[in-house]
Amino acid sequence: MVSARRLDGLIERSRSRPPLRTAVVHPCDEDSLRGACEAAQAALIVPLLVGPESRIRALAERLRLPLDDIVLCTAEHSHAAAEVAVQLARTGRVDAIMKGSLHTGELMTEVVRKETGLRTGRRMSHVFAMDVPSYPKLLFITDAAINITPTLEQKADIVQNAIELAQALDIANPKVAILSAIETVESRLPSTIDAAALCKMAERGQIRGGALEGPLALDNAINRRAALGKHLQSPVAGDADVLVAPDLEAANLLAKELSFLANADAAGIVLGARVPVMLTSRSDNVQARLASCALASLLVAFHERQRSTSA
């Protein structure tokens, strides 16, 4: 695996921030518990471990991970841990949530619950920030984890979420490519119609803060020569910051192809909730877990700046 210089840069930037109070949900396997402890040692988070206390302490002892300065919040099982973590976020005791050794669906069921979850007026979505060695900058891919077949209105929120994450990383006007299989509008490919509609929505101010272009095929979005070969003069074409896939399957495949075939490193986060949610994976290395914490910290800082500006 190549060195992920850009993700390292995010981690270093977030060190200037106070550690993020983070509920770690059911950290009952080595990867999740070690990841939380290492993020705490790196001063990126102040973890609150939510789960069966005796099981967590036994695991920590076996792994020789000190828990002396870490608070544990007892929850009998993984479902209860998800409920408790969401309530901690609702009441302001934590500023972020990190997934431990439970299924994503189990955690997100509590996060999206109407009465007791972390909903806002925005649709929740997931964004990968990827350091691809052959690409000259960070590449954001969405939505590879939450919305299976999003509607046009949901895609508008997915785009807005990704724009805000890019802005939190000081990309003032992120270039957003709305992907399909081709770069022309074709009624037999509904994703091309959605792409054109999203671009028009951006023109009308329904999506703000980024430059949108679509539909674009993947090569036209990330390769300037391919874009010029199709006579695409948009500033987005060939130089995208954000890739918006037509559906979850396409985004998930793209992200995993980059990770396993192109030696890319990735950090992921859920946006659109009251607090950032880090959906770490068992395949994530330490650096990817730390980078996810950095994304959450920088996003919280961005929202704090927004609130202070509007106050």
Number of domains: 2
Proportion of helical residues = 40-55%
Spell out the helices and strands N to C.
HEHEHEHEHEEHEHEHHEHEEH
Task: Write down the CATH topology of the largest domain.
Answer: Isopropylmalate Dehydrogenase
Q: Number of DSSP helices?
A: 11
Let me know the number of strands. 11
Average pLDDT, all residues: 93
The percentage of residues in β strands lies in 15-25%
Q: By helix and strand content, what is the structural category?
A: alpha/beta
Q: End-to-end distance, in Å?
A: 45 Å
CATH-level-4 superfamily name of the largest domain: Isopropylmalate Dehydrogenase
Oligomeric state of shown chains:
single chain
Explain this structure.
The chain is α/β, with parallel strands linked by helices and 311 residues long. It has helices spanning 5-14, 30-41, 53-63, 78-90, 104-111, 152-168, 190-203, 218-222, 224-229, 248-261, 286-310; strands at residues 20-25, 45-51, 71-74, 96-99, 125-131, 139-142, 175-179, 211-216, 242-244, 265-271, 277-278. It folds into two domains: 16-119 and 273-311, 3-Layer(aba) Sandwich (Rossmann fold), CATH 3.40.50.10950; 125-270, 3-Layer(aba) Sandwich (Isopropylmalate Dehydrogenase), CATH 3.40.718. It has a six-stranded mixed sheet, with helices on both faces. Strands 3-2-1-4-11 form a five-stranded parallel sheet, with helices on both faces. Helices cover 43% and strands 18% of the residues. 51% of the residues are buried. The radius of gyration is 19 Å and the shape is globular.
